[in-house]
C-alpha cells in the first residue's frame, strides 16, 4: 500500500484505498511538534549508561482534596489520551500525574536499553520522588496495567488504590504464541502504516466500528511512520513487545494487597502474539469477558466493573461509564 501527502495541507490519502486523515503529519521520535493538553515537564534519568529525558504532565486542581492519581498509558499510546480523564479528576480535587514512559510519547527513545516493567516502575517512582509525592492512586490502561501491577508489587507502601483498565498481561502470552526475536519484531514494526494500525485497532479494539474520537490517537502513531525517525521508534516498539511477551505479571496478581478495581470492556480481544499462535489457540486468547473475572478472583477483595459490548479503551469509547466506575472507587 502506498501513500502520498499534500505537504502544505498535511492531507494523507491511501492510493487505491480510502481517505485516512486530514490531520496526520510526520512526527519525530519525541513528538516535538505535537502539543499535549497540559504543560509537559521532564526529569533527567541516568539509566543503564543512558542519559534520558522522561516527560510527564502534572495537573494541579484548583481546590485539592489531598489525593494524587497516577495515570499510566498503553503501548500504542501516550499520556495525551488521558486529557478528559485528567480534566474531570482535577475538577474533583485530584492532583493528576501523567508520565510518558521511556520509549514512548515525548520521552527518550534509547537504542541500547533493557526494558523491564521493574525499570519502568522505577522510572515512574523517580517522577513521584521529584514531586515529593509519597502516596498515590494508580490507574493503568493496557500495557500501563502491567506497569501499574509491577509498580504496586514493588512499592506497595506508595499505592493507596489500584485501577486496571483493560490491562494486557491478564494471561501468559508465552503459553499460546511462539517467540519472535527482537530483530524479527523490529522488521515487523518497520512495516507499520496508518492503514495497518487502523486495521489492527478495528479488529481488536473497536469491533470494526470506527468513531471520530478514535482518530487522534491513530494519527499520533501513524505520524511516526511518516518521519525519518521512525526506525528509532520502531526499535523501541520491538524492545517493549519483547518485554510484554517475556515478563508476565499474571502469576503475581495474588500478591496484590491494596484495594483494586478492574474496569473491563468485555468485547476486547487484545492479545500479544496472537498472529503467531496456532489457529486452534488464537480464539482462546484475549477473552476479556473471562479474563476479568479470573483476575478478580486472584486479587483478594478486588472489585470488577464489566462494560458490555465495549473494547480496549473504555475511557475513549464510553467515557461516562468509565469515569463513573473510576470515581465511585476513588472518591
Structure description:
The structure is a single chain. The chain is 34% helix and 19% strand. It is of the alpha/beta class and 331 residues long. The protein has a single domain (27-330), classed as Rossmann fold (3-Layer(aba) Sandwich). The strands form two sheets. It has an eight-stranded mixed beta sheet, with helices on both faces. The longest helix has 17 residues, at 230-246. The N and C termini lie far apart (49 Å). The model is unreliable at 1-19 (pLDDT under 50).
Percent strand: 15-25%
> Helix content range of the residues, please?
25-40%
CATH superfamily: Alpha/Beta hydrolase fold, catalytic domain
Examine the coordinates and then state which fold CATH places here, giving the name of the CATH topology: Rossmann fold
Q: What structural class is derived from the secondary structure elements?
A: alpha/beta
Low-confidence segments, given as residue ranges, are 1-19
- Quaternary structure state of the chains depicted: single chain
Give the number of domains: 1
pLDDT averaged over residues? 93
Provide a count of the helices: 11
Distance between the termini: 49 Å
Broad shape? globular
CATH architecture identity: 3-Layer(aba) Sandwich
Strand order of the largest sheet: 4-5-7-6-8-9-10-11
Amino acid at each position: 500500500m502506498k501513500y502520498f501527502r499534500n505537504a502544505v495541507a498535511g492531507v494523507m490519502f491511501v492510493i487505491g484505498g480510502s481517505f485516512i486523515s486530514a490531520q496526520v503529519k510526520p512526527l519525530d521520535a519525541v513528538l516535538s511538534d505535537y502539543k499535549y493538553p497540559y504543560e509537559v515537564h521532564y526529569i533527567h534519568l541516568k539509566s543503564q549508561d543512558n542519559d534520558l529525558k522522561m516527560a510527564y504532565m502534572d495537573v494541579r486542581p484548583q481546590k485539592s482534596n489531598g489525593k494524587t492519581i497516577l495515570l499510566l498509558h498503553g503501548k500504542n499510546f501516550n499520556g495525551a489520551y488521558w486529557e478528559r480523564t485528567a480534566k474531570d479528576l482535577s475538577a474533583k480535587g485530584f492532583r493528576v500525574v501523567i508520565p510518558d514512559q521511556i520509549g514512548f510519547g515525548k520521552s527518550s527513545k534509547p537504542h541500547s536499553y533493557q526494558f523491564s516493567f521493574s525499570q519502568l516502575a522505577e522510572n515512574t517512582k523517580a517522577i513521584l520522588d521529584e514531586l515529593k509525592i509519597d502516596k498515590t492512586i494508580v490507574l493503568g490502561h493496557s500495557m500501563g496495567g502491567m506497569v501499574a501491577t509491577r509498580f504496586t508489587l514493588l512499592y506497595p507502601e506508595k499505592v493507596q488504590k489500584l485501577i486496571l483498565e483493560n490491562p494486557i498481561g491478564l494471561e501468559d502470552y508465552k503459553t499460546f504464541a511462539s517467540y519472535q526475536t527482537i530483530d524479527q519484531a523490529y522488521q515487523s514494526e518497520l512495516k507499520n502504516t496508518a492503514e495497518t494500525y487502523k486495521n489492527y485497532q478495528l479488529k481488536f479494539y473497536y469491533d470494526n466500528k470506527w468513531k471520530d474520537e478514535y482518530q487522534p490517537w491513530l494519527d499520533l502513531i501513524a505520524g511516526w511512520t511518516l518521519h525519518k525517525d521512525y526506525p528509532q521508534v520502531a526499535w523501541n516498539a520491538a524492545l517493549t513487545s519483547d518485554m510484554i511477551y517475556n515478563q508476565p505479571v499474571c502469576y503475581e496478581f495474588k500478591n496484590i494487597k491494596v484495594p483494586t478495581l478492574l474496569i473491563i470492556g468485555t468485547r476486547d480481544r487484545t492479545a500479544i502474539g496472537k498472529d503467531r499462535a496456532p489457529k486452534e489457540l488464537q480464539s482462546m486468547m484475549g477473552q476479556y469477558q473471562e479474563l476479568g473475572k479470573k483476575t478478580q478472583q486472584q486479587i483478594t477483595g478486588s472489585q470488577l466493573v464489566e462494560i458490555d459490548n465495549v473494547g480496549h479503551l473504555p475511557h475513549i469509547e464510553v467515557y461516562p461509564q468509565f469515569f463513573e466506575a473510576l470515581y465511585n472507587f476513588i472518591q
